[in-house]
Amino acid sequence: MEQRIVEASNLSAAKRVVELGPGTGGTTRTFLQHLGQDARLLSIELSPYFHELLGEIADPRHVNHLGSAEDLAEILASHDMAHPDVVISGIPFSKMPEAVATRVAQAVKDNLVEGGRFIAYQFRRDVAGITDPIMGAHASCRLELRNIPPMRVYRWFKTSGD
Q1: Beta carbons within 10 angstroms of residue 45's beta carbon
Q2: Residue 142 to residue 84: CA distance in whole angstroms
Q3: Residue 67: which pLDDT band, with cuts at 50, 70 and 90?
Q4: pTM exceeding the 0.90 threshold for the entire prediction
Q5: What single-letter DSSP state applies at residue 146?
Q6: Pairing mode, if any, of strands 151-157 and 40-45?
Q7: β-strand pairing of 86-89 with 16-20
């Protein structure tokens, strides 16, 4: 599953990556293994408990932030981070109020660099119904059957004029 996310996001070429909803940090550690030494990974976590766990990651490329993905622009500015090349989301869009999910998807679009990638790994399809009207139809959706339960990995690109 993590390998599918790494491939979809092309992490080895990314310099600025944002991870939304990293949870306990398992995916965060994997992403750091695939990032270059000059890259930065900003993790945005809403749960104080998970945020504390993420604080145990001792990698100078990792920035740990407690907050909401809705506030992406302000969070990027507070860490002097330019528009990300990649935003990866594990937050469960199916569990959020639709208005919140829409604001998160809009924040991703507004803050991605032109040509940037938004990757969302989800159990359900809700993220496509929310994000497609904002970013255009997803470029790909791959079902990872080896994950229990199976997980979908969606990818969008921010195109010029978006």
Answers
A1: 27
A2: 23
A3: very high
A4: yes
A5: T
A6: unpaired
A7: parallel
Instruction: Mark 59-85 as b/e (b = at least 16 C-beta within 10 Å).
Output: eebbbbbbebbbbbeebbeeeebebbb
Distance between CA atoms of residues 100 and 77, nearest Å: 21
CB 32, CB 12: distance < 8 Å: no
Question: Any idea what DSSP says for residue 132?
Answer: H
Provide the mean pLDDT of the chain.
94
pLDDT tens across 86-133, in order?
A: 999 999 998 999 999 999 999 999 999 999 999 999 988 899 999 999
41 phi and psi, to 5 degrees? Answer: -125, 115
**φ and ψ of 158, to 5 deg:** -85, 115
Closest C-alpha to 69, from 11, 109, 16: 109
Structure tokens at 3: 């390998």
Decide: helix, strand or coil at residue 50: helix
DSSP state of 136: -
Structure-token match 């994997």, residue found? 30
